[in-house]
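I hope you will forgive my troubling you with a question about protein structure. The record follows directly beneath this note:
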Amino acid sequence: MPETIYYDAALGVVHNLDPVLFSLGSLQIRYYGVIFALSLLAAFYLWQWQMRRGNYPQKTIDAIIVYGVVGTIVGARLGHCLFYEWEVYRADPWRILYFWEGGLASHGAAAGILLALGVYARRYRLNYWEIADRFTFSAAIAAAGVRVGNFFNAEIVGRITDFAGGVRFVRYDLGALPPAVRAAVDAPLRHPSQIYEFLMALAILAGLYFADRWAGGEKRPRGMLLGLFFGLYFAARFSVEFFKEYQTDLRVAQGLTMGQYLSIVPCLLGWALFAVAWRRRNTEIKN
């Protein structure tokens, strides 16, 4: 069986890719780490576009790198470790630092970024809501990249399905077996939920772009894009959880997941912020 991602007429899409791209001695370079780094680079270019449009000095623009990277990685990693695999990381705390192995929670990333932007805005005496609005484009492209990394890592997979567009994640379902014993036919079809979230993030990025233009670009009310991003993204996160495999045993009678629990409040707050910003825009237009 090929150790790659391939299509078989009888089996459909088979995912049997080794997550390690190459090794340098004891150092493993994984697809996830490379994709994550490229996502951060793309996020920075979108940040530069937004900040240069607002005529901010390059020194202020470049300063976001440390705040953004630290806030994203620390928040996402701690969010995953605390909410999804607390027992694992409590037993081996040093593994919390192995972020390149995967395991980053979008809810933790959102909290980490919001906090980092607050520190950044205070340090450079900037309006927090305006800076947060400008950062939403970067957040959307980073979210899309992370899900591609999850797909290559064969993690955060979808639930078992008979959907023809499903994927057989061989290493996820049969990873404990020796390669010679594995058979792709023994791996069930699963929803490629990572790809669903990737496409959702791209759609949200497009939505932010058109909303920005519709609201007048630099004339847009502060907080509008942040509210729109949170409202759309966490609504999407709530929806896709119906197709994702359960990552914890915490559910309610209706079958909600931890990801859905954590999405409800930021989604509602996002739409509330968007409504307030939109109302302020209409008031300013009338006046």
Remarks:
- Residues 5-286 form one domain.
- Residues 5 and 15 are 4 Å apart (CA to CA).
- The chain has one domain: 5-286.
